[in-house]
Structure prediction request, 343 residues.
Amino acid sequence: MTEVSDSYTLDNLDELESNVLSDLKSISNESEAESFRIKYLGKKGVFRQLLKSLGSIDPQKRKEVGAKANRLRSLVETEFSKAHWKKESAEVVDKSFDPSLPGFPFHKGSLHPLMQIRDQIRDIFISMGFTVSYGPEVESDFYNFEALNTPKHHPARDMQDTFYIDQNHLLRTHTSPVQIRVMENQKPPIRSIMPGRVYRNEEISARSYCLFHQVEGLYVDKDVSFADLKGTLLAFSKRFFDEETKIKIRPSFFPFTEPSVEIDVECFLCKGQGCSICKQSGWLEVLGAGMVHPNVFKSVGIDPEKYTGFAFGMGIERIALLKFGIDDIRLFYENDTRFLSQF
Prediction:
């Protein structure tokens, strides 16, 4: 390669062109190519220095000389980018690669079983005219308890062991606070479901965990009755479990609904005959529900004399355990691929 020289000027561009093209042809490997790039095309290279010196020549010649210098630099950059040593290097690589070999057998991923159940539940209710709403997992005491007719020192608070962040903030214990937020920001009629994670300070065992997933539902309008609640949940059960599925309604208590009920579905494994999954009862408890308490309507500014509504909530883990025949809730959170790959 020609020795680096500081004698190149705008007056001897022809000499520069001859030398640079000669040096370009002599490149045989990547090391020589890098030396060429630094010498001619680098930040302190020949072309950069020449273009900087344009300001010192006669203004009448500047445009013509500058154009010639730029054309030469573009030519060198183009020839450098397609230099023969690159093709030779590529050919060496190609010879070592056999495109006929099979690819690596990467395993395809899939949705977590809990998310599969969540999506099935969501899609059924969307087809019934419900929208989907979400809310924060860190809630205030007002949204998680007080607006749901559970004031401080109310005994119903003992039903839920709560993770408190400070005196007024906590990890939500159910997705019912989203119902309050929806009713605050939307006028009836309201028909929405609220899926999400919830947290309770419970002992971890085969049947309980410190976090789980719920799907809440809310329907508010004029003349909504308990018959609407029963019909909605029966339609859901038949689509989610089986067309022949029966439901059983039992009285219960929740501070934010009145009357309150719990819903059992006929065991879809034994068809009501009794088995280990349903503990020989023939029924499986799947959700709680009821008519929205008037105090809840008052907390969000909805007239309970004008509107009525129902709400329901179900645990996704419980339904997944039942539907997949799993006997330990902890399996959903251990990330064991032997377990997850079955779904």
